[in-house]
Structure formats: structure tokens, C-alpha cells
Amino acid sequence: MIRVYNNKESFLTQHRRRSLADHPGALASVREILEAVRERGDAAVLAYTERYDGAMLTALAVTDAELAAAEDLVEREVADALQEAADNIRSFHARQVRNSWLEYGEDGSVRGLRIIPLDAVGAYVPGGSAAYPSSVLMTVIPARVAGVKKVVLATPPQPDGSVNPYTLLAAKIAGADAVYKCGGAQAVAALAYGTESIPAVDKIVGPGNLYVTLAKREVAGLVGIDMTAGPSEVLVVADETARADFVACDLLSQAEHDPLAAACCITTSAALTAALPDELERQCAGLARREIAAQSLAANGAVVKVESLDEAVEVANLLAPEHLELQVTDPWALLAGIRHAGAVFLGAYTPEPVGDYWAGPNHVLPTAGAGRYASVLAVDDFVKRSSVLYYPPAVLLRHAVKIEALAAAEGLTAHSRAVAVRREELERQNR
Fold first, then answer.
1. How far is Cα 360 from Cα 383, in angstroms, rounded to an integer?
2. What is the pTM of this model?
3. Is residue 322 annotated as a catalytic residue, yes or no?
4. Which tens digits make up the pLDDT trace of 350-398?
């Protein structure tokens, strides 16, 4: 079911062969969908929704009545949990807010930075037969905390034309302004270009399948995007104290997402290395999504035996995993050495679902090694920064010649002249 490697070199060699191909067939379909939505608006979105989601719709927007009905369909225990999770997410992201600032020089100059929320954001949330209310909370709430004026949600409908009530209740709790019944590349196109029913936004965020990811990549530049996330990943670093049943559960929690998901364990324990394959097979047999999980483990899973935790940390930094669990005796001792990971989970009793659903940190994370340079979705993703500068005449005069010299060194004579003409005028005034 899962490959076992007795050294990190053979594992890393195999891992490097695994790449996210461009998928030319899927890309061609995505480009066709984008063009159709740009040209035909709602009509194209409705046609693709019928083709891919099996829902024959006459309107794309979720109505107030549908939102109200969702509250009655959701169990009170789940509704309460969604509200408390939302509170955790909101409080965590509130600590990320940064304020504009101005610095006043003694000479009268002023320089600073303005932090300005985006005007409109579109959050994409997978849907259809499944429900991902956690992704609603993780995308809409940070935008609201940042002060975005308009936040809308796009999610695929179920075949009967409805949207899962968990998703709708989460949208209400998170504060979405509107919910639209569309998914896939057509939803990304509608959010990027705008249609008769769906307003164009400034940025599109949220996870999705291959078609969503490719569509986001295609419209990037016309609108902002958070990231082009690939299949989900987890890397568990474990020592001799780690329990095989805990580690297997955590590997399967990612493997059940997608056949392309990657679930790996790097361990110093020979006993754990030997026990994990059987434990994974035993647990996988009882999963609702066992076929998907089994495919994922067979294609992209790994158990890797290393000689030391230093080696394990080295591998973790090379992989830069989306989720990194440290199931070791002293996880805090390893944390300082971790440089590249989307999210880090410390200890045997902090499994990845604690972050996915509850604690407050965002679960929209960089994948496929992007943790080397990219970050978890945060309030900063929903604002833009503009610099502010003021020079009074005397300050410009004091620095003008040096600015002109720098401009001239770059061969930009108009730049130099823009300063020189003011310097010359000020010099005349001072004679």
C-alpha cells in the first residue's frame, strides 16, 4: 500500500520525479471555459453548471430564503461548533492586522505606508456532493477582518440546484455578502471577468481542484490570486515515542482528500517503520473514502527511515510540506530548525484537523514545495500597501544634486531633469 525507504536519498530521488504536470488537456478545457464565460456571461456559467454539476439553474445567486432555510437544516451541535470555530479564526486573524503609519522628519519631510483593504474579493469553496464549511470560514473571515468592502462566495451546487446547508450557514456566520451557485473554472472566470449576476472581484482566493487551480493561474494578473495550490500534503516527523495508530490516522487524513495527495512519515524508529504499512492498511479498510486514500498512499505515500531527527528536519526543509507534524518527545526543540512548512503541528495531540477546523490559523496553505517562499493565507492577502512621501522645497533642494546623479547614472535624463528644473527654480528664488 505504501512505499518504505530505508534512507532519505532514495526517497528524495523518487520524490523529485513527482511533479505537477501542466496537464495540457485540462488547460485547453479551462481556456475554452474562460473564453466562453468572458463572452457569454451568465449563459455560459449556467450551461457549464448543468454539464459538470448536473444542476439546471435559472439563477446563480443563493436567495435569502435559502440562507434562512439552511439554519433549520443544520444540527445545533454543528452550528455551535461553526460559530466557535469562526470566533477562533476571527481572533487569530485580528492579531495580524497592521496599521498605516507616517514618519515625520525634523526637516519637514514625511514618509509612510498606507494599508488599504481591497474593494472586492471572491472566495472559492469546493462543493457539490461534499461540504467544506471550514474553507468558507478560512477565506471569508480574514477578508472581513482586513476590511474588504465586498466578499462573495462561489461554490458548486448539488444536482438538485441547492447548496449544502453547512456551507450556507458558514457563509452567514463568516459574513459573506453573497453566495453564487457555480464551481470549477467557470466560477473563476465569472469572478475574474464579471457576468450579469456575478460582480468582478479584485482577488480570488480559496482551494479547488485541478481545473480551478489552472483557471486561477490563467486569470492571475487580471485579478490577484492567493496561490496555485496543488494536491494536499502532510509530512509526519516521528521518533520512537510516536504511536503507529496516531501516525496512520494522520497520514490517512490527507490521503483521503485526493488520489494525488501526498502523505509521508520520516522516522528514526525501526519499529514504527515496520508497523505503519499494516496499520495503514487496517485503518484504510474502514474509511468511507478508502479507495481514494489507498490510491494516494500507493502513488504518493512514503515511510522513510532516517538515523537522526536532524536528518528528519533536513528532509522536512527540503520538502517544504503543506502540513508538518512533529510527533516526537520534544517537538519544541525541533521547531527552531524548521524553516520551510505551511503549518507546523507540535506534539502527538495536535493533529492536523485541529488546524483545519478549529484553532484559528488558516488552512489555506502553500503546497508542492512553495512553502520555501510562500505563506499561509492571512490578513495581508486582503490588503494592498501604498507608500506616501512629502518633501518640502528646502529638503528637495538639499538632496537634488544626488538624486540627479543617480538618475543620470541610469541614463534616464527626464528623471534627472524633473528634479533639476525644481532645483534651478529654488536656487533662483534663494539668490
1. 20
2. 0.93
3. yes
4. 999 999 999 999 999 999 999 999 999 999 999 999 999 999 999 999 9
Q: What grid cell was written down for 90? A: 476571527
Asked if residues 193 and 154 have their Cβ atoms less than 8 Å apart, the reply is no
**What is the amino acid identity at position 313?**
V
The DSSP output letter for 276 is H
Same domain, 201 and 281: no
The reply to whether 300 and 272 lie within a common domain is yes
d(CA 321, CA 304): 15
| Chain centre to alpha carbon of residue 262 | 17
Catalytic member of 15, 93, 257, 323: 323
Q: Which domain holds residue 322?
A: 3-19+230-359
Q: Are residues 145 and 244 in the same domain?
A: no
32 is catalytic: no
Same domain, 10 and 65: no
3-state secondary structure of 193: helix
Which of 218, 233, 256, 322 is catalytic? The answer is 322
Residues 52 and 185 in one domain: yes
244-263: pLDDT as tens digits: 999 999 999 999 998 999 99
- Do 33 and 162 lie in one domain? The reply is yes
Judge whether 367 lies within some domain: no
Q: Where is the domain boundary, 359, 377, 403?
A: 359
